[in-house]
Amino acid sequence: MWRNRIFVGAWSVLNMKVLLGLFAAAVILLLPGTASAYIISYTTSTPIGSTLTDWTETLAFQQFNLSWGTLNSVTIALSGSMGTTITVKNNGTSPQDGTAKTELQITVQDSGNNLNNPVIDVFGPEFDFSPLGVSETKVSGLLTKTYSSSDLYTAAAVLSAFTGSGNIVLNASTLTTTWLSFTGGNIDADQVTNASLTGTVTYDYVPEPATLALLGIGALGLAARRRRSR
């Protein structure tokens, strides 16, 4: 009987040492400078489908909630595609050789104009209309291009704008231009362009100590349950 008591006591001490070790590991997470950064991403709830340019629309993103921790940076990733058709006509008195292409600029900005890299600038495929006879018209057919950008922001004004309990709404707009290069004479050109846009914001942050403490307590509870089940 006495031997059994000694055995049980030794088993309890052993488990207590294991739990204390786990608790020490949890405490280390709470020490200054040891907490790991976390990231969370949100895709816009208002993606812009393929729409005839030039358009003005909005992208809405969920804001970072301060109760989650301390926000270090915001990364805004944008992507989309364009489809354009270019038509050229030779109004001159001699045949022409040349090329045409469409430039698409997309501007995304918050209401306080805090974003310093808000423009996507992309050129569509080049349309070679050589040769173009007198009074002749040529159409490129649909020319497509995809585009993307990613910008990281750490400025206090940007972090503040993206912090809250609701959504941040970014204004998005397009500007399209046709670029012509030809040998001379009189050329008319126009383009019809559609463009789409979507985006994701990624928040890099350090969780609040209370959140890490809960994670540590949860780990201790799990370890204790595992021990009792053996």
User: Could you say which structural class the secondary elements and strand pairing correspond to?
Assistant: alpha+beta
Run of helices and strands: HEEEEEEEEEHEEH
Number of helical runs? 3
Strand element count: 11
In percent terms, what proportion of residues is strand?
over 45%
Q: Main β-sheet, in a few words?
A: 6 strands, antiparallel
User: Which word captures the global form?
Assistant: elongated
Give the N-terminus to C-terminus distance in angstroms: 23 Å
User: Residue share in helices?
Assistant: 10-25%
What Rg do the Cα atoms give?
30 Å
Overall number of domains: 1
Write the layout of secondary structure elements.
Blueprint lengths: L1 H29 L7 E6 L4 E5 L3 E7 L6 E22 L7 E12 L9 E5 L3 E2 L8 E3 L3 E11 L2 H6 L5 E16 L4 E21 L1 H21 L1
Antiparallel strand pairs: 1-11, 2-11, 3-10, 4-8, 4-9, 4-11, 5-6, 5-7, 5-10
Description:
The structure is a single chain. It is built from 3 helices and 11 strands. It is of the alpha+beta class. Helix 1 (2-30) runs antiparallel to helix 3 (209-229).
In short:
The chain is of the alpha+beta class and 230 residues long. It contains 3 helices and 11 strands; from the N terminus they run H-E-E-E-E-E-E-E-E-E-H-E-E-H.
